[in-house]
Amino acid sequence: MSTSTAPTKAPAEQIAAPTAPPRKVRGRGERSRAASLASHGVLTLASLVAVFPVAWLVYLSLGPDKNDYLHPGRIWSKMTFDNYAFVLQDTNFFDWLKSSLIVSLGTTVIGVLVAATTATRSRMRFPGYRKLMWVLLVTQMFPIAVLIVPMYQILSKLQLIDNYFGLILVYCSTAVPYCAWLLKGYFDTIPFEIDEAGRVDGLTPFGTFFRLILPLARPGLAVAGFYSFITAFGEVAFASTFMLSDTKYTFAVGLQSFVSEHDAQRNLMAATAVLVAIPVSAFFYLVQKNLVTGLTAGGTKG
């Protein structure tokens, strides 16, 4: 006897339902497209804001007339390099360059060396060290106008008025305190075991400092050196007070010769300012690698 079996129906829950495509989940720290576009837009705008003054200065330096800045659109049709030729040939430009380099490099070398030897005392605890560092910090609170008169009297008694070394000492008095605090924070990141290793090898404290600590602190020294160089290169108040000879003016003071009571040769000022930026840019190029490392890394990172 044959029995027939009817086909059974699969239950509804066993029927595979169509699955939706998986949603893309952003990883941790991954930004959305809108956030990425917004950040790129902000960075582009910031770059334009930073570049515009430099581009505007170069543009004005190509105008032949001192009042071209009032009608900038006219410069396009009459661009010329006559301003640069006049500055290089008919002014004391190279004397200003020599004075600026002597003062800036002298301040950088002496100031960084003194600041480094002062800051490394944080590795040799002794009574009064903390008070000494606070005294250095307090000296930064006095405005330049208050310091000019006593400094002038001191330099006058030492016969250092209108002298490169006198101006270097003045600049070191302002650069050393800041650089000492800057380098102290960097020296503190270098392991103290290095000092112990130097003593085991028979090095004196100064030998350990010059042969072991300073090479590791090269990025921090680059930051301090760049600060000292830029500060001395662009300072006006001290240089215009203590340097009396035209041939010993720095660039910052020499620029004032283009401005008188009734006249201002802005085209020549712009050309000189562009030429002034060349040594600073070259110095920045030389130290940029260590400068970035010193601002972002610790003393134990190579």
From TrEMBL:
Q: Which PROSITE patterns match?
A: ABC_TM1
Q: Which one of the record's GO molecular function terms can you name? A: ABC-type maltose transporter activity
Which cellular component terms (GO) are annotated to the entry?
Answer: plasma membrane
| Transmembrane residue ranges | 34-59, 101-120, 132-152, 164-183, 221-244, 264-287
Q: How does the record classify its membrane topology?
A: Multi-pass membrane protein
Give the region (Disordered) as residue ranges.
1-31
Which keywords does this chain's UniProt record carry? Cell membrane, Membrane, Sugar transport, Transmembrane, Transmembrane helix, Transport
One Pfam family, please name it. BPD_transp_1
| InterPro entries reported for this sequence | BP-dep_ABC_trans_perm, MetI-like, MetI-like_sf
Q: Which residues form the signal peptide?
A: none
Highest taxon listed in the record's lineage = Bacteria
Q: Does the keyword NADP apply?
A: no
- Identification of the protein by name: Putative maltose permease
Q: What is the species of this protein? A: Streptomyces coelicolor
**Source gene?**
malG
